[in-house]
Amino acid sequence: MSKPALFGLTLNELIALAKEEKLPGFTAKQISEWLYKKEITSIDEMTNLSLKVRQQLSEKYCFGLSQPAKVSESTDGTKKYLFTTSNLKFVEAAYIPDNDRATLCVSSQVGCKMGCLFCMTGKQGFQGHLSAGEIINQLRSIPEWKNITNIVYMGMGEPFDNLDNVLKSLEILTSEWGMAMSPRRITVSTIGVIPAMKEFLERSNCHLAVSLHTPFDEERRMLMPIQNVYPIEEVVKEIRKFDFSGQRRVSFEYIMFNGINDTPRHVKEMSRLLNGLQCRVNLIRFHAIPDTPLKGSPDDVILEFRNALTAKGVFTTLRSSRGQDIQAACGLLSTKENMKRE
Ligand code: SF4
């Protein structure tokens, strides 16, 4: 059996580890600096720890970084990294450079339980949670990690179905002893798992993105089974209890499906649902996935929809499509790899 990893431990966990190993308390801080701020990949390279301490740690623990198994690069500069997980499955992360920004889209689970009709990851089913270390490894083990300005939890999985590990990864990313990123540069996306979403909003300062996709109950049930448990009306009601008037942001993701959710009726209902809430709507083009009857709305319909929402006072943006030539549709690449292994 492989040794437990240091990478992915919080400062408190490292303090407990130092105590157990009878090491001075400050060793925990030194280790966290090596894990989360420096360019090293082994315990051996933690040179401000004595040789004896390094040997003692190496006997029981490994550093815990895992290099990408594969990388695909798009003609537009987007890269898709494939990682092997501890249960020998695959997840992926997408690196998306854009002028002075570089966004990394990370996965939080292998597969997903939520079964959304339009999603390749959903078709794969659930195959395991990622640990906090496996989530941050997607950042720390790619060559561009020091240049990343923004992180979005929009890859494979429903982050709030793996809340403890996601919160732990956010703690490491945003703490001074960790990667010291601003929470304003991190967005966690959910389909609206209300209890976990509430806990996230209370315990973290990161931005929230909610997958809306249609304001109508029947349609949303068809697209996203979660609507049967947590209706979007209730999700928005819960969000209204939190303050988004300052720097913290809530956005609503809206994939445009031809003839399904792209009509004036939808514009009207969306503006009612979101009325008075400080938020933005991100419209997303749908890229066809195998075995689904869904098709993306044409560009002119999308633009009309955006203009109509804007006219109703809903701040609306259109997300540009990136990395299409490397199958950047969420979950496509890793799902194929996982299915090959079954
Ligand atoms: S859209 Fe998100 S929540 Fe729905 S099945 Fe895909 S990964 Fe899961």
CATH architecture classification of the largest domain: Alpha-Beta Barrel
Strand order of the largest sheet: 1-2-3-4-7-8-9-10-11-12
* Computed CA radius of gyration, to the nearest angstrom: 21 Å
Uncertain runs with pLDDT below 50, 5 residues or more? none
* Structural class estimated from helices and strands: alpha/beta
Overall number of domains: 2
Q: pLDDT average, as an integer?
A: 93
Helix content: 25-40%
Give a written overview of the molecule.
The protein has 2 domains: 11-60, DNA polymerase, domain 1 (Orthogonal Bundle), CATH 1.10.150; 70-340, TIM Barrel. It contains 12 helices and 12 strands. It has helices at residues 11-20, 26-37, 51-60, 120-124, 132-140, 163-174, 194-203, 217-223, 232-239, 264-273, 299-311, 332-340, and strands spanning 70-73, 79-84, 90-98, 101-105, 109-111, 126-129, 150-153, 186-190, 207-211, 250-256, 280-285, 316-319. The longest helix has 13 residues, at 299-311. It is globular and about 70 Å long. Iron/sulfur cluster binds at residues 112, 114-116, 119, 121-122, 156-158, 191.
